[in-house]
Amino acid sequence: MSAAGPPIGLLTSRLRSGQSPRTSLDQSLLGGRAALLGDEGTAATLSGWRAELVGLGPLEGLAAEELVTDILVNGDGRTWVDRGSGVVPTGVHVGDAAAVRRLAVRLAGLAGRRLDDSQPWVDGEVAPGIRLHAVLPPIAPHGAHLSLRLGRRAGWTMEGLAGRGMFGEEMSDLLQRLVNRRVGFLITGGTGTGKSSLLAALVAASNPHDRVVVVEDVRELQIEHPHVVSLQGRSANVEGAGAVTLVDLVRQALRMRPDRLVVGEARGAEVREFLAALNTGHEGGCGTLHANRLRDVPARVAALGALAGLDEAATASQLRSAVNVVIHLRRRAEGRLVESVGVLEAARARGSVTTAVTVGAAGEPVRGPGWPALAELLGLAER
Is the pLDDT of residue 137 over 80? Predict the structure, then answer.
């Protein structure tokens, strides 16, 4: 049966409501055909219409898979996913280059963003926790490409991540102590290593009486905590006005009486406000940062501080006062792993990160030169 039966405006508005089948919605959209289709046929038809008009279209099934964290569509319509062990191809094909472009433009519209020849890239939230990035020619000469980051999975807990092999029991105890003692920390690693998942789990494990304020450029963190306030950035409109940056959000968050300030990812000039916030009595602040190794963190933060007009000495001073511990993640064939934990020390003017714990071949924690400093922070100095 063709999907072109009901008026498109009525169809879109009704399907956006998310009402279930076998209501008056059946008759208004399907008319007398609802009885012919039966319950299962009606449900399938409405589900298909919803996916094509206000959902993810041919990507809907992939997005429903519990383990999928990323969906990537190339200009030729081929689709790839990451289920936690790296990117692999799928049997889903979006269509030709024109079909991929139509899908990218429609999803950008759902995110409230503009995507066309004059604005050939977009970054936005298609649905709660589903982040879209798409580019058009001439940036991508072989056709439109789009990426979906699925950060909306509920239930990321310490127990759940341990069950997926991210860390063992001893490392879990160390991380829980880190939260309980309100130590400021950063989670580092490459793209897709699980930084946001671990951050959400650690914040969820914090004191339920804490008021947690989360700021993100695009909302990704789904934190199961009784008192979470989320602030999200916004791109400029077509006139180039109305942008809300992470710098703006951090400043607003500081006026909202947070017990913990969480920055989804520090990747620009907002690192100045983030570090300043963690130096104003907001203990237990945390965030994520792209870095290849523990020892790269001070240089990475210095580079971001330069974007905000801070010199290296000022950035290093703020960093040493704000952050005590760095947790580094990496991806392996079996999944994501907490590879090491380091402590930030003032050994040099820029500061340095000394490895305190690494994960051995059998998954056991191995103490490094920074262990005494970490043990003192976590109240384990007597062990």
Answer: yes
